[in-house]
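Example 9 (inverse folding). The structure is encoded as follows.
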């Protein structure tokens, strides 16, 4: 195999060091993932490898240098993400992540999009009345939606925030737990509570809940209502039936925005019940004012192992379905 040698002039030693990472952590990831040898001499970087792998490595380095020059952090996860983009010929897309802060948490931490998919998702929510965000766990679907909901409330674009999700157990029966209805549904809504408290602080969150400016309730409570001047989020929407999805979407009132999030690979509906999320995405994809955004395993921002787990399950799905269908026939 012909070996190719490519050179990059980083120009700035400090920026180059940020790209290489602490103890060259990012550099080692790049060499391991793309099977190239990288030598650094001052501000010059020399990449040796097969023609296509060396070209991908150079593309990754050049784009990470631009990102670092714009003040963005470059860590192991971001390096791996840029490598994934480079394999698709889209390494330049990572520069879109320099476009600013989405919001600030209660403790002053800036929230920024960590993937191109997240950036598309956030832009879609800002520009459309209804957005369906579909993707695997860990892609920030709910977190970013709550972030934008709080921002819209603070900027007086809406008068209240309404968060809801179907009360469907994830493979476990919880109906005999002690307590009233609110006690029973609280575990389902905990991710929403946590996200709200992160952006508002516990005291402000409690006050807004008491005033009714924030409402958190099971999906069944939405029936018969018109939700106006509100930012409404339906979480875990893969567990909403077609009938429930239609009911929810038709609650949209004047001055409101809806975000529907879900992971269609984790449907917990009883046998015979079909999820309304994919159905809604298909029939509404061409409706003006409605945007369907798909996030993938590359958009997972949890522990890097989560990305590998998601990809493993995605790869297994076709074979698993084929095996199950064969078993059913037998």
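The amino acid assigned to each position is listed next.
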């Amino acid at each position: 195999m012909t070996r190719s040698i490519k050179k990059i002039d980083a120009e700035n030693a400090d920026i180059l060091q940020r790209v290489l990472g602490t103890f060259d952590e990012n550099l080692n990831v790049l060499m391991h993932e793309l099977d190239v040898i990288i030598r650094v001499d001052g501000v010059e970087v020399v990449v040796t490898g097969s023609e296509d792998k060396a070209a991908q490595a150079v593309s990754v380095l050049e784009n990470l240098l631009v990102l670092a020059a714009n003040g963005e952090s470059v860590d192991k996860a971001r390096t791996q993400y840029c490598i994934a983009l480079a394999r698709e010929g889209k390494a330049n897309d990572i520069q879109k992540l320099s476009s600013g802060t989405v919001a600030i948490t209660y403790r002053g931490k800036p929230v920024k999009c960590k993937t191109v998919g997240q950036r598309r998702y956030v832009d879609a929510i800002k520009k459309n009345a209804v957005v369906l965000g579909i993707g695997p766990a860990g892609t920030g679907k709910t977190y970013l939606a709550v972030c934008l909901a709080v921002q819209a409330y603070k900027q007086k674009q809406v008068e209240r925030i309404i968060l809801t999700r179907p009360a469907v157990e994830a493979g476990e029966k919880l109906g005999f737990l002690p307590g009233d209805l609110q006690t029973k549904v609280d575990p389902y809504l905990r991710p929403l509570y946590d996200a709200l408290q992160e952006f508002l602080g516990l005291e402000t969150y409690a006050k807004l809940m008491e005033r009714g400016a924030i409402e958190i309730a099971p999906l069944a409570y939405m029936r018969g209502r018109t939700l106006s001047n509100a930012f409404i989020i339906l979480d875990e929407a893969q567990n909403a039936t077609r009938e429930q999805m239609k009911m929810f979407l038709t609650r949209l009132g004047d001055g409101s925005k809806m975000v529907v999030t879900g992971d269609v690979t984790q449907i917990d509906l009883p046998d015979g019940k079909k999820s309304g999320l994919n159905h809604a995405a298909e029939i509404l994809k061409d409706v003006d004012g409605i945007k369907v955004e798909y996030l993938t395993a590359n958009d997972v921002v949890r522990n890097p192992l989560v990305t590998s787990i998601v990809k493993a399950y995605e790869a297994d799905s076709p074979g698993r379905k084929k095996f199950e269908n064969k078993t059913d026939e037998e």
